[in-house]
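Hi both,

Apologies for the delay on this - the queue was longer than expected. I finally got the pyridoxal-5'-phosphate-bound model through. Below you'll find the protein sequence and the ligand SMILES exactly as submitted, and right after that the structure tokens for the full complex including the ligand.
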Amino acid sequence: MNGNLRIKALPTEFYDQFLSERAKNLKPSPIRGLYPLEKQPGVISLLAGKPEPSTFPFTSLSFTAKDPTDGNTEITIAIPRNELTPGLQYSDTAGLPDLLKWITALQELSHGRKHGRNVSGEGEEGWRVSMGTGSQDMISKSATALINPGDSILVESPVYAGVIPIFRNMDCKQIEVPTDADGIRSTSLKEILENWPESQKRPKLLYTVPYGCNPTGMTASLERRKEVLRLARQYNFIILEDDPYYYLYCDKATRPASYFALEVTEPCGEETGKAYAEVGRVLRFDSLSKVLSAGLRIGFASGPEAILRRVDMLTANANLQVSSLTQLIAFRLLDFWGYDKFFLHTRNVSAFYKQKRDVFERELQKWLGGGAPEEGECDEGRLAEWVSPEAGMFFWFKLLVETSTEPSSPSLEEQDSRTLIETHAFANGVLALPGTVFLPNGSKTPYVRASFSLLDENQVIEAMKRLRKTVLEVRNLDSK
Ligand SMILES: Cc1ncc(COP(=O)(O)O)c(C=O)c1O
């Protein structure tokens, strides 16, 4: 963190140019909009139609969980009747206050952001947190709050398949920004922005998954991130930083800073002789799905108040709030652990996936990486190409179906993995995702996404044998 920088939060009016017409026309919920007044001391509220919790059958809740310091020890967390009430009752739209507070402090610790006044005490950084039913919910609502039909948005490509239908349903133009082993290609992004046609409205958003990207497994390098942020400031767009794999980073090198963190450390320029950083261009999405439980359905967005206010209004209309009970369970566990144990837990989880990744890669190398894996077999050469992921739970590999001696010959690029996976691999008893589902324009690709999160070693070996068999069969078919 650069303590010499003056932090300037973008003003509320700045977001008018980004908010969708629908978001601008949203009105606060007539009931939920008055909820904060209920908390005024001395007020007798006749406001909300809240049920009386004493009529509910649940009287207490107790669960056991792992102690991260020792994977074998279980701790018991008991929630007695009086403390269970917030979990049984309606709560605030943005989230259960205790959990919101815990998560806000987590963002401060993980990303060096100050929720209240900034480091130099010169005003607010202008961000807060809102809870969603998984980060998917927050991404979808943020897209609604920001995109008008006909808008152009920049999406890294390949992209998380779960956002393609969201953006498609918004009738916006998805401009693909290619990625490689170092994440999103900032030079391509620059080219797109520099050559943007005068007659067309400029893109207002960039969607990217910076750590252990789904599907490519790639983590964007620090240099790329800095350049992307610089371009966002120069060409005036907002970065949607979708980061559910943040805590699954397992590379030996120091983790590159998130976009949310870089906003306060990367200077924009100088004013009255002092360097300043402008903050408020990053809307960050986190998820508890990969580290606590996917079934809890808790994700959260951190970013400008002006956007999250609209997101909360969409929540108030659509589902009122995330389940209070799951928020309470998550809070009680996190509060019991504290931040040190939470970080220890996430390190344990990332070490678990690192070990899975290593086994997967070893077998991928053995069965598809070239050479004859078993005695008596012919050497068929390389059957796949990939780059080792530094986070997340995916391998993204190119199947080399053609027997060309030049693996990057244009004819290979034209190959599509869909039939190979859906027909031939499935017939051989192995499934993966054909890469085309991760391309917003649905173009062909020889790439495949394989998830290594659930398989044990024997399953990995068997899956790789079956994939090898499939590629060899298809090669033979092609040569006939
Ligand atoms: C990149 C990405 N974003 C968002 C999500 C949705 O996560 P959540 O369970 O928090 O809704 C996923 C889930 O796999 C994902 O891979």
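Main takeaway for now: The chain has a mean pLDDT of 92.

I'll put the files on the shared drive as well.

H.
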